[in-house]
């Protein structure tokens, strides 16, 4: 049953770099034949919103869509706002379909849906389209969605996930950031040279070229082989590997980001740093030291590990196959891991800490660090009892007061700082996994002790955003009671406090997530710790300070009065 929809609404609009406005008269569109109107039930604020805020039309997901859909469809879609067009941020969204056009077939009015943000089939020049970026998001009362945009034709699946169970709106909206966390642990890693790939083989003088064919995918060898070898015998060794090798005069003269796999038999710092730039997105660079050492730190593109999903591997031995064999199947935490969450008391750090503690991994120990004692205390209130219940050894530490001297086998990094990655390498135990979850800018390179990285068989990895499959997994965990995403809520707001909420995320003044309820137009930003003084009946329905469905229901009643 369709609801009566007003002609105008309250909305937060991003109108330029670092320029946010509260628009109390934004038009509510009448849906066309393929369009729907969603009434926003709840939207979470995210640190990624700040990247859009600062970069605006320079953000890769604010760019124009260049493939995946007919341009005529986008011309019709009024919520498509690329470039310098004002947009509505907010991508952690739960909403109710309240109206739909005659041609809409997959969703109907009255249906409650979780929104998947990443429209990965709609490519921009350097990324993909996304809800809350070049398509208007959830920081408004009503959002226009086009079924032709939110359905991936390759998957034949809608990126609106129906939710039938009666849960808090906040817990469902927060599935999206939790799905990003999940993605970082479960994304499958490639452990062979990519079939049909563009392979670059570089070898210093006197080095044998070993283990390449053994590293080929069962699906086939590389599509092309480019070589830059010091000795003629090295070129000859590559002749029987399928594709005809093509020799290059120098590594520096090769096109940047043009190779899916790079295998270097050598230990020269300058060569490695040049190869850095030749690696394509999703590519792997394999440094085969052959008993040698580099002897000094190497500049590594740690930013592209997160945004470009590039991977660095290596071996102290002589065979390239050894490095590929050491790649883990996923970035999942392992039994007996000693895990360090760096920046554990921030919103995303809390999620990583809770996920690790809730993972059921045998003999796991977790140390969470932050420089803010109040934020650490807030995290402790949310996770200490959970760790005790699950039998996980958990310590929350301010490293400025209690320096860490241990070695760790798992790192989850929330700080978008290259130096933190470098320190993780120095503090790594054998076989350490380094989850670069923080969005270090893609252009950032960092001096890293690659000798230690290779000797310890470390593996750096990173992911950006989430996939529909990740969201489904997390949603099921929430609906089954395995995961309580509301544990991460630290404050609530209506539209009046939404900009203050974004600025609080920027200032890192709140430890956990902020949930905005657009239907509560006048509610200011309100930390849960202040509810007792402002809305005592809401505070009474918290569970040991944790947000609940009952508290949400009470807030929607009393704050709307």
What characteristics describe this protein?
18 helices; 28 strands; Rossmann fold; Quinone Oxidoreductase, Chain A, domain 1; 561 residues; globular; alpha/beta; 8-stranded mixed β-sheet; 6-stranded parallel β-sheet
Distance separating the two termini: 25 Å
Label the CATH architecture of the largest domain: Alpha-Beta Complex
Radius of gyration: 25 Å
| Total DSSP E strands | 28
- Tell me the CATH superfamily of the largest domain: Medium-chain alcohol dehydrogenases, catalytic domain
Assembly of the depicted chains = single chain
Q: How many DSSP helices?
A: 18
Uncertain regions spanning at least 5 consecutive residues = none
Give the overall pLDDT as a whole number.
Answer: 94
Largest sheet: 8 strands, mixed
Top CATH class of the largest domain: Alpha Beta
Give the helix level as a range of percent.
Answer: 25-40%
